[in-house]
Amino acid sequence: ELKIVVRIVAAITVTIVAVVFFFRDGDEEQ
Questions:
Q1: What local confidence, expressed as pLDDT, does residue 12 receive?
Q2: Residue 29: DSSP 8-state
Q3: CA–CA distance, 13 with 25 (Å, rounded to integer)
Q4: Which are the contacts of 23, defined by CB distance < 8 A and separation ≥ 6?
Q5: Residue 12: phi, psi to the nearest 5?
Q6: Which DSSP category does 16 fall into?
């Protein structure tokens, strides 16, 4: 069960980081 939670948290973290990085990159270009 712990491994599943870790995978979910990791997936959410990666998604948030990717979105934040994408918006920062787009904002800097503008």
A1: 99
A2: H
A3: 18
A4: none
A5: -65, -45
A6: H
The residue ranges of the chain whose pLDDT is under 50 are none
The whole-angstrom separation of Cα 11 and Cα 18 is: 11
| Residue 30: alpha-carbon gap to chain centroid | 22
Query: Using alpha carbons only, how large is the chain's radius of gyration in Å?
Result: 13
Predicted TM-score (pTM) of the model is: 0.60
Query: Which residue in the block uniquely carries the two structure tokens 């712990």?
Result: 2
Structure confidence at residue 24 (pLDDT): 85
Return the closest-CA partner of residue 18 out of 7, 26, 28.
26
Tokens encoding 18: 């990717």
